[in-house]
Amino acid sequence: MGAQIITGLTMPELPEVETVKRGLEPVLRGARIIRVELRREGLRFPFPKGFAQGLSGARVTGLTRRAKYIFVGLDTGFSLLVHLGMTGRFTTLSKAGVQSLGEFYFETGATEAADGPHDHVVLHLEDGTRLVYSDPRRFGMMDLVETSGLDQHKLLRDLGVEPLGNGLSAGYLAAKFKGKAAPLKAALLDQRIIAGLGNIYVCEVLYRAKLSPKRKAGSVKADKLEEMVRHIRDILNEAILAGGSTLQDFQHTDGGQGSYQQRFAVYDREGEACACGGTIKRIVQSGRSSFYCPKCQK
Ligand SMILES: [Zn+2]
Questions:
Q1: Which of 156, 213, 229, 291 makes a 20 to 30 Å CA pair with 274?
Q2: Active centre residues (catalytic)
Q3: What is the pLDDT of residues 236-247, one digit of tens each?
Q4: What is the whole-number distance in angstroms between the Cα of residue 276 and the centre of ligand 1?
């Protein structure tokens, strides 16, 4: 019995969700779900009516990500919609043992993970693999939605552009930020403008762009917006390559730590020295911590 955990531990942000999606791909793509065990009525929301029946017998056609949601496409015309909430994770248990270990797999050897008190959903696949969804805090969600209507799902229809997609550009941000007196930090976290960009990465983007989280969103000049877009893509891609930021409790299969967290320039570094000679400060903006260097971020 091999066990693999495919997840981060705390508050997955977009890179962690992308990491989980990539980890699930070799397990799920082309696989047939033969049975679904639901060990409770729901997670953050109740499971929809006919959820287990709708998944049983379906074959997975592919996986995609939108913001922090994972879509598992099925040959039934429906998609399984998954959000990991704060503590959601997937573990695979396969009879064949640990297979095709890749960058995004984390071997634990903890087979009891399949029967823990927080294991809420188990997908039994045709080849004997069990895919277990665990979620201690149960802020995650699952839904079964007609694939053709995904864009109109109530949780998805108001989402802004993908930070790694073609929709994000300096021109797009200029239009959205025009006349906005809201702090830049809040505007970047607004999911209706950019979907899936979270607190940690916004702090890092603003640091790299040398922009204060407090300045008015509407005051950022075109060349700085251009720079910011580049940093958003770079930072998210770097984090995805590192396997996400919140995987520090797991070791990569090569024994390395593989954590983007070790590379944070400002996030969670209050009181530490900035390369410019300034000191990193923490302030609270709309209930979230902002970490920045008041000396070099203007
Ligand atoms: Zn500085």
A1: 229
A2: 12-13, 68, 288
A3: 998 888 876 543
A4: 4
